[in-house]
Structure formats: structure tokens, C-alpha cells
Amino acid sequence: MTRTYFSLHNEKPRLEKELIEIIRTLEPRLDLFTYTSPDPDAVYLFMEDQKGNRFSVQSISDGTLRFMAMAYLVLAGEDSPADSVPGLTIIEEPENGLYVGHLKPLFERLATPGAKDQFIFTTHSPYFIDLFDSCLEGVHLVKPGVPSSEIRKLDVEKTRKLLEEMSLGEMHFREMLG
């Protein structure tokens, strides 16, 4: 992740600033990233607050590090050239180590018009599933089947009616989806 962020710092500083803004929701002290390279084979990432105090990535939680990686993936997808091949990112249980509410603003960016990259999330968390109640067209379920599992789309109209009664995660928990 450090080398990726360092490249971003050197090649796309506007995107780096946007990334810092997103990460600041979890790490409010963050003002900027700084890097040191004691030898040509190593780059070290530090975060700095507004007073110039440095703290290393080793001082933040695993969940925050996961969030930083996901934020980069979402932003990189938004910033890819229009004529490039769409990316596919698969993230298993992205909510691990994180308060699910922090993911909502980040993942709302995935449903923006013109987004072309695809993201596949696997989860068992009804709270995470609730994040996607406003973009039902993109929600698919994997159900056990014979001889293999099946991918099914939601019945969007039926699901919208049920959303008046309960959350998407609750529907999943009660096995009412597909």
C-alpha cells in the first residue's frame, strides 16, 4: 500500500488529497501523508497532523488500514480513463474491523453515474447489506445449488415494497431475498 500511495503522491496529488479527505472520517488527526526513503528499495509512509506531528501506519488499527486500501480502490476506479478496461475488485467481508457506518459514504461513490469498475463484496453482515438498499439493481445473491451455487438478481420491485416494512439486511437474515 505504501508504494501505491507514494506513486499517487508523485503522479496524482489531487487524488491523494481526495483520499486524505475520505480517510479523515476515520482518522481525524490526518492532515497529509509524508514519505521517507532511507534506501532505494524502501519507502515508508507516515501520517502527519496539522501541527506537524508524525504518526506511522503501525499506530493505526487493522480496520483503518483496510479502509485506507478500500478507499484507494474506489477512488482509483473513479479516476481511470474512460477508454480503459473496467476493473473488477473482490473484497471479502469489508466490514471486518470497521464500524459499518463508516463504509456508507465510501460505497455510495460506487453507485455514481459513469462508474464503470465492478466490485464484488462477500458478507454475512445484515448491517453491511443495508448499505445497498438504494441501489438494488446491483445487488446479487449467491445461493446454494446443485451441482454448484447460483447467482441470482433481486426482484427489485418486490424488494422495494418490502423495504417499507424492514431493512435489506433483515430481509437477507430472514432469507426473503431470492
Q: How are the strands ordered across the major sheet?
A: 1-2-3
Roughly what percent helix?
25-40%
Distance between the termini: 37 Å
Oligomer: single chain
Radius of gyration: 19 Å
Contiguous runs where pLDDT drops below 50 for at least 5 residues: none
Share in β-strands: 15-25%
Write structural notes for this entry.
This protein is α+β, with helices and mostly antiparallel strands and 178 residues long. It has a domain at 2-87. Helices cover 35% and strands 20% of the residues. It has helices spanning 2-11, 13-23, 62-79, 103-108, 126-129, 156-163, 168-173, and strands at 32-39, 42-48, 54-56, 88-92, 118-122, 140-143, 150-153. Strand 2 and strand 3 form a beta hairpin. Helix 2 packs across helix 3. It is elongated, with a radius of gyration of 19 Å. The model has no long low-confidence stretch (mean pLDDT 88).
What would you say about this model in short?
With 178 residues, this protein is α+β, with helices and mostly antiparallel strands. It is built from 7 helices and 7 strands. Strand 4, helix 4 and strand 5 form a beta-alpha-beta unit.
